[in-house]
Fold this protein.
Amino acid sequence: MAKHFNIAICGSARVGKSTLVNALCGKEVAQTSGSLCSITDEMTKYVLNRTCQSVNEATNSTEYSITIWDTPGIESWTKDNVQKHFTKIMLESTPLCMIYCASPGSFARLDQLQWLVDTCIQSNIFCALVCTNKYSGGSQQRNHVLNDFHSLLSRYHTMTRDESNIKYYGNIALCTSVNSIIYEDIDLGVRKGVEGINELIFAITTSLKDEKLAAWCYTIAENESFWSTMSEKMIEIFNICRPPVEEFLRKEGKDIAIFLIPLIIKAIIKK
Ligand SMILES: Nc1nc2c(ncn2[C@@H]2O[C@H](COP(=O)(O)OP(=O)(O)O)[C@@H](O)[C@H]2O)c(=O)[nH]1
Ligand SMILES: [Mg+2]
């Protein structure tokens, strides 16, 4: 039987929600707006279906179905139906986490964000507040967004760690800034590579537990950049024995996620 999980992505239109979803998943799951006007009132969902092979019994496989909910722009949240729909996702299913996106200088409704974070924290849903498209504004605008995130999250938990540009608030929330795709401003001669995505994925991994963690690993299973860059750290935090992994890498070259995820799940179960 398939196990169902949800992830909610929230924020205003055109802040980079779809671009972030694609960067996290390591493939095009969400349509980005490009130059088109994409303001929509509808909830969009992307469903990822994964089959996992159990480590011991090759016959016994569990299916994971992960639904990523791309919610309409925060401006329309006052509408009763949207709020109702949103609460339904938050309370009636098992969201792994809520990822809130705001780009530098973007429209920020802190009252709405607070309502959202309140709902999540009461329901034990991990919150990742992300300043998306970080180079699209100046550093002042970016810091403004990050300061808002920090003061909001500090109300729920003191900041417990500040590492790799990620602030952690216990195991309940984090905030950070990312650049999900290459940023280029030809006039100013500025070019910035992708930043903060692998770190964000890793931070969420270390903050989740049990089944939610397993489902998160499946969400990012096809992100080759993450697994090739961060597999060392994953092996370390899950205490996975290194030699079989090295042997697999030597023989197979890639698809490390397919090999590593069952080992991670085994490690989660053992804990
Ligand atoms: N360079 C760069 N562009 C981005 C980033 N995030 C979003 N964009 C661009 O901003 C526009 C809106 O992004 P999109 O993901 O569709 O926003 P959404 O409406 O919140 O889903 C698109 O043209 C993206 O290419 C980023 O991190 N870096
Ligand atoms: Mg979108």
